[in-house]
């Protein structure tokens, strides 16, 4: 796992173009999409298992910058559910998961 993370530390990993899921896109965008997946699904797993989750603030800001234009005014018909309303003052992690249709206040049943 550390080797995979180390690969993204190289500036070259963020240059050029790549192909993922049948879509050609800039490498930097692919990296941000991968980061978003790790952050959001990390939240899913942590929340479902009752664990604390504190991702890197810079990563959260990058994911928010990526998703905000895609989810503004979304009706939930895209890759995410309908965004959950949260106040602009909500913590970045709450805003990120809300953009993907998740309720930041969700807790598993006891």
Mean pLDDT: 88
Share of helical residues: 40-55%
Number of strands: 2
The H-and-E topology, N to C, reads as HEEHHH
Major sheet attributes: 2 strands, antiparallel
Word description of this protein:
This protein is mainly alpha-helical. It is built from four helices and two strands. The protein has helices at residues 2-7, 27-48, 57-71, 92-99; strands at 17-20, 23-26. Strands 1-2 form a two-stranded antiparallel sheet. It starts with a helix and ends in an 11-residue tail after the last helix.
Itemize the secondary structure elements and their pairings.
Blueprint: H1 2-7, E1 17-20, E2 23-26, H2 27-48, H3 57-71, H4 92-99
Antiparallel strand pairs: 1-2
Helix pairs in contact: 2-3, 3-4
Short description:
Helices cover about 45% and strands about 5% of the residues. With about 110 residues, it is mostly helical.
What labels describe this entry?
globular, 110 residues, 4 helices, two-stranded antiparallel ribbon
């Amino acid at each position: 796992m550390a080797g995979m993370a180390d690969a993204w530390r190289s500036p070259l990993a963020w240059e050029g173009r790549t192909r993922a899921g049948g879509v050609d896109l800039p490498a930097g965008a692919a990296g941000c999409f991968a980061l978003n997946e790790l952050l959001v699904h990390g939240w899913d797993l942590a929340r479902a298992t009752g664990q604390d989750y504190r991702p890197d603030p810079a990563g959260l800001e990058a994911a928010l910058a990526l998703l905000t234009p895609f989810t503004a005014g979304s009706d939930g018909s895209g890759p995410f559910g309908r965004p959950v309303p949260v106040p602009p003052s909500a913590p970045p992690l709450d805003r990120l998961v809300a953009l993907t249709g998740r309720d930041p206040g969700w807790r598993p049943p006891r």
